Amino acid sequence: MSRVVSTYGLCHKVPKPPLKAANRWHSLRVASLHSQWTLLSNHGRALQTDAVQANDVPFRKHLKDEAKRKRHAERNVKEDHHTGSRGKKEEALRLGKWKLTVGLEIHAQLNTERKLFSTAKSSDNDVPNSSVALFDLALPGSQPEFQKVTLIPALRAALGLSCKIHRESRFDRKHYYYQDQPAGYQITQYYRPFAVNGRLTLYDHDGIAPEDGQSIDIGIKQIQMEQDTAKTTLQPPSTAMLDFNRVGHPLIEIITHPQIHHVQTASACVRKIQLILQAVNAVTTGMELGGLRADVNVSVSPKDSEILGQRTEIKNLSSFKAVEDAIIAERDRQIVVLESGGFIEGETRGWTLGSTETKKLRGKEGEVDYRYMPDPDIPPLIIGQDLTSHIESFIPDLPDVILKDLTMHSGLTSKDAKTLMVLDDGERLDYFDDVKLLWSIRRASSKPVMDVEHTQRSISDDVADRRQSGLSRLADSSPVFDRVVANWVLHELGGLLSTAALPFSPDLVPPNSMVDILSNLSENRITGTTAKRLLAMAFNGDRRDINTIIHEENLALQHLSRDEYLAMAQSLIDENSDKVKQIQQKGQMGKLKWFVGQMMRQGEGKVEAIKAEAILKELLGVS
Amino acid sequence: MKQRCTWVRNVLFRQLWQALPRTRASCRPLSSLSQTPDDFEGMLKDPSWSVKSLFESEGSAPAPAVTKTQLHHLLRLSALPLPESEDQEARMIKDLQAQLKFVRAIQEVDTEGVEPLQSIRDETKDAERENEITVTTLREEFDKEEVVGKRGRIRRRRDVPDAARNEQANDWDPLSQAPKKLGRFIVVDTAKD
Fold it and tell me: Is the ipTM of this structure higher than 0.90?
């Protein structure tokens, strides 16, 4: 029994018991968890995914790796000129004779309540085989019933990728036998998918290969809706344990044109597609949690040839790194075969993490004939134009738009902007926007009257206004202040969250309190250290108004008079004459910083570093 | 008496002959077309056409034979067992070839400009309008969502109870049909016999 439990838990993290905390913390955590993560199964067991902090760590690490890679690339170019690392040069020359071509097929699970052709609800962490309709098990006599609600996320995905929507599309059967396919066929859209001719632009900040320049456009051939299969857990040697909860869940398959020619661009493309799908609320989870899978078609051809070589397909890659590694391995294998005079067979290959070469799954002999045929039980899908227009007009801001706004208008770094966009399902970004706007209103309201009208226009932003050229955004954006907000929302608040192991919630530190802290800080009424202390106090539950706290706890920066500075500095100088000698005679300016540090420590937050340094320099007679 | 019955029968046959629709299939040359329609009995006495003609050898070059490899491939695709003896295999191939001949005869029909029939359903404009999915069709679903933040982010409303999540998952037990199970899983042995 325990073996069953452990294998069942394969795809999901083992649930952690809730923290033993004060009532307020516990209720806050439960409230925010309930709305975000908790899924109660039939038996009332709460299964939580502890994915909040886990999610941002790999992404931020990826951004750091990107930056490191760029630095190395620049350094290598210089190095190669000097040392002339021959091995690398030779390899580069060899690879340079061949052109790699990659096409992607991405399968993503749609974010819907129901399955595609049955009224069973789509389950996530439920008890196995608890959400299965008669049609899902293909019991004789059961009929498919297209669930119209599944169209909403599908259309959002297609419009997010700028596709043309076909008013009428059909469903087809793709036949093959496998234990996870009860009907013996999968219902998909082969002959007439519902969306075609999309496109996606990748920029250098998305992590494309440097050879692709500043940006590259990838065309999307089509997007089709299809069914998912059952979840198989293999118990060696040959027993398969099947959970049919997932059968019939709607998937979309996104097929790109073979326009990708470099490995990094391929994984950047998968990443970008996932980002877009998450932004338009079309998918439930990303690749890390199994909501997205990629199949890759790889071929090589001589550098200047227009004709593409024979391609092979690598199936079931479930992480970005796997995509990169598999493409590299397959490209190298194909080059070796072609250079030794052989030819590539059109076959399906598999990849396991940690391998060095792809493995053949099916050769030509085992080639499957899918016998595609239109499904006679399902009437054509007719999508009204009004529906398409409605969804298009309410589509959320796409990642590129948000990134541009954050970097250009708010002055954030690309890395910070990307992290902010992705954290906490967009809640962190909303919090940032609220704090930013609130602070800009406060700043404006302290200006002369004629400016108030201007800010009031920005307050009355609503959905329709968002569509406009960003004038509304400019009204409340200001790089100087926005960068401070981002820093505190991302790093300071982030630090407190990870230490306390709490998921993010905008109620932890209400925007008002955050603005109070930041405005006091920027107007020099408190020091940085005090500000951090105030943040921690608010985070831990202190609900007093920030200004009240400053007043009551006497945290305001009291500017010491010049005499007080002189007195403090003088006493330190008298106590540490040896260090003074080192500064004056040997010019060791580092020791000066030590004095400043001592003064700040003695001053308990009332000493300002710049002033202290100036006074010390004056007394010591150095510049 | 016999004469009267014959007369009735002839009248009925004449009415039947006039009511027969002229379909494409009936464009086959009927040997008795030259005869007057009055002689129904003579016309209907001997069959003028038989389905067997579809299985007989064609005038032009015969189609390529079905090889054993092809037969085995088809059987594997259909998850059917391979033939057990040479005799059975020969019979299967013969049957298959006859069936293919039949299919080729059907393929001779001219279908230029005819849309393939995908399913038997109502194909009128009214039906299309009824099946069209519009904003109104999905209004209830849209009402369960809300827009939050300043970036247009869409999310499920938290004040609306999640109907799907709370309803009874199954009103039947999927496991009751499984021949082999382990806990809540259905078990299949994937080893090749």
Answer: no
Distance (Å, rounded) from C-alpha A585 to C-alpha A620?
11
A48-62, A509-523, B117-131: range with lowest mean pLDDT: A48-62
Residues of B in contact with A244 (CB under 8 A): 174, 186
Look at strands B181-182 and A381-382 and give their pairing: unpaired
Following CA atoms B70, B71, B73, B78 in sequence, which dihedral angle do they give, to the nearest 10 degrees?
A: 140
User: What are the tens digits of pLDDT across the range A3-15?
Assistant: 444 344 344 444 4
pLDDT mean across residues, chain A: 80
Determine contact: B165 vs chain A, CB below 8 A: yes
**Residues A309, A314, A318, CA angle at the centre, nearest 5°?**
145
Highest mean pLDDT among A171-175, A309-313, A461-465, A591-595: A171-175
CA A175, A181, A184, A185 dihedral sign is negative
Give the per-residue pLDDT at A554: 74
At A578, give phi and psi (nearest 5°): -65, -40
Q: Can you tell me which residue has the tokens 């990303």? A: A286
Q: Is the pLDDT of residue A31 over 50?
A: no
Residue B12 host element (H or E)? helix B2-19
Provide the pLDDT for residue A5. 40
**Interchain pair B174, A177: CB under 8 A:** no
CB nearest A281 (choices: B133, B155, B167): B155
Q: Are B158 and B147 in contact (CB under 8 A)?
A: no
pLDDT (average), residues B110-135: 91
Q: How many CB atoms lie within 10 A of CB A152?
A: 23
Paired tokens of A361? 């799954």
Positions of E strands within A137-214: 164-165, 168-169, 172-175, 185-188, 195-203
Does the beta-carbon distance from B132 to A378 stay under 8 Å? no
Q: What share of chain A is helix, strand, coil (3-state, %, to 5)?
A: 50, 15, 35
pLDDT tens digits, residue range B39-53?
A: 788 888 888 888 877
- Please judge whether A430 and B138 are an interchain contact, meaning their C-beta atoms are less than 8 angstroms apart: no
pLDDT at A355: 80
Q: Tell me which chain A residues have a C-beta less than 8 angstroms from the C-beta of B81.
A: none
The total of other beta-carbon atoms located within 10 Å of residue A347's CB is 17
Question: How is chain B split among helix, strand and coil, in percent rounded to 5?
Answer: 40, 10, 50
Whether B189 contacts chain A with CB within 8 A: yes
* Residue A455 confidence (pLDDT) above 70: no
User: pTM for this one?
Assistant: 0.74
Q: Do A129 and B172 touch (CB under 8 A)?
A: no
Q: Which residue has the higher pLDDT, A44 or B107?
A: B107
- C-alpha A574, offset from chain centre: 56
Q: If you write DSSP's letter for every residue of A299-316 in order, what string do you get?
A: EEEETT-SS----EEEEE
The verdict on a CB contact (< 8 Å) between B149 and A402 is no
Candidates B119, B152, B189; nearest CB to A463 = B152
Tokens standing for residue A372: 């595609």
Residue A509 has pLDDT above 50, yes or no: yes
Give the C-alpha distances (Å, rounded to integers) separating A610 from A149, A406, A600, A601. Answer: 62, 31, 11, 14
pLDDT at residue A56 in the model: 46
Q: Which residue has the higher pLDDT, A479 or A85?
A: A479
Nearest-Cα residue of chain A relative to residue B116: A374
- Alpha-helix residue ranges (DSSP H) falling in A412-552: 414-422, 427-445, 452-459, 463-466, 471-475, 479-487, 493-500, 511-522, 528-539, 546-552
